[in-house]
Amino acid sequence: MTKKHCEDFSNKIIAMNDMDPILTEIKIEVTYQCRLSCIHCSSDALLSHPSTMSASDCTKIIQEAADVGVKNIAFSGGEPLLWEDLSNSVYLANKYNISTTLYTTGNVHDFKNIIITLKNSGLNKAIFSLFGATPQDHQAITRVSGSFSNTINAIRTSSTNNIQTELHFVPLKSNYRLLADIVELASSLGVKRISVLRFVPQGRGALLQKDILSKDENLELKRQIEYLRAKGYDIRTGSPYNFLLLNENPKCTSGFDKIIVDPESNIYPCDAFKQIKAKELVGNDAYSNLKLYSLKDCWFLSPFLKAVREYLSTPFEEPCVNCRFLRKCLSGCRSGPGPSDQFSANIRWTQFLVTPPCAPKPEGAPPLAGSPGIPPSACALQGQHGAAGCCRTQTTLPVRAAGRCPSQYPANTRIRI
Predict the structure, then answer these.
(1) 303 to 77, 281, 289, 299, 379: CA distances (angstroms)
(2) pLDDT of 47-77, one tens digit each?
(3) Which CATH number covers residue 82?
(4) How far apart are CA 305 and CA 299, in angstroms?
């Protein structure tokens, strides 16, 4: 890629994200109660969890969503099927011509009657979490006996009742090689699309650093996805997996067309920010809670959302800007946990999930053999890029500064940039 092409592409990315934000999708986490105890749960959900949204708060969100032109509302958790006002909320959204999606495990009593009621209320899509193709593999993640058969039966019931049904799969060290088996099982259940979601170590998952995929394991996962796609299966990957170079013209729309709302009505740009509070990022929580402010005001005035949008609209810097794979990688996902109370410093700590050989050693680290003498293109060329937002120019969010693409660090190393 020539310098001019690099500049043109960087400007294209800026133009893509430097538009007026138009809110089209809201994911509402109505409760953090759940009958499962998944080892990687980002919400730290459990059956006795106290966080549950009131029916009136959800009604307010749906009504305001209709006023600003939202097209889709997803109900999530925890397990949203445990929330008693779900059917009424789906009906209300449908009344406003808003499409609805359900994220679920299917592990509730009387699932069949519940899902039929939701369908009659206007539910459009159900997405199930599946972590293995056998009870042993799946339940090693959920830690609840019988949860596999409950989920499989729920998937079958949803599909046979003509509800658009999809699966989500989160690859960990213990299950990433099971993708092909899960795809075949899904096909037998009438499910056509499976989304592979990158594990973000937050919530209960913060304790699972050892289960994050290494560079070689991510490359093996990439080969699995390419093989399955070649066989005609619909395997989707989200933007946090852009470093695998699997998608043409990827983009990150965090805070540009969607938000997440937790049971306390706090807003977040996307799922990867769920454990990051507005005050930690921008020093205040103004326009970051839908109980205190209208959805419209939060969407346009939130300093939290504005900071993320500003970050996503800044130009790329060296070495990424001259990498011919930037078009597919986009310098990785920029969210990640850190050890500081101040998010402006916190975000400088990045959980690198793979180790591309293309940048200098971290501050205070011992010298690394061969660093930094490898050209930037080497990282994505071998499918090894995996930084969390490493190469945009410095803004109010001091991330992606020049030359901070991860190098030959030990796998899963947290380094300061």
Answers:
(1) 25, 9, 12, 10, 34
(2) 999 999 999 999 999 999 999 999 999 999 9
(3) 3.20.20.70
(4) 7
Instruction: Give CA–CA dist 46/69, Å, rounded.
Output: 34
Q: How many domains does the chain divide into?
A: 1
Q: What is the pLDDT of residues 362-405, one digit of tens each?
A: 343 333 222 233 233 334 333 333 333 444 443 333 333 222 23
Q: Domain of residue 79: give its range.
A: 21-237
Q: Which of 258, 263, 241 is nearest to 250 (CA)?
A: 241
Alpha-carbon span 366 to 16, nearest angstrom: 40
Sign of CA dihedral 179, 184, 187, 188: negative
* Cα(48)–Cα(62) distance, integer angstroms: 26
Residue 268 lies in a domain: no
Cα–Cα distances in Å, from 219 out to 144, 241, 410?
31, 11, 16
Residue 329 in domain? no
Contact 260, 220 (CB under 8 A): no
CA distances from 320 to 184, 305, 307, 343 (A): 37, 25, 22, 24
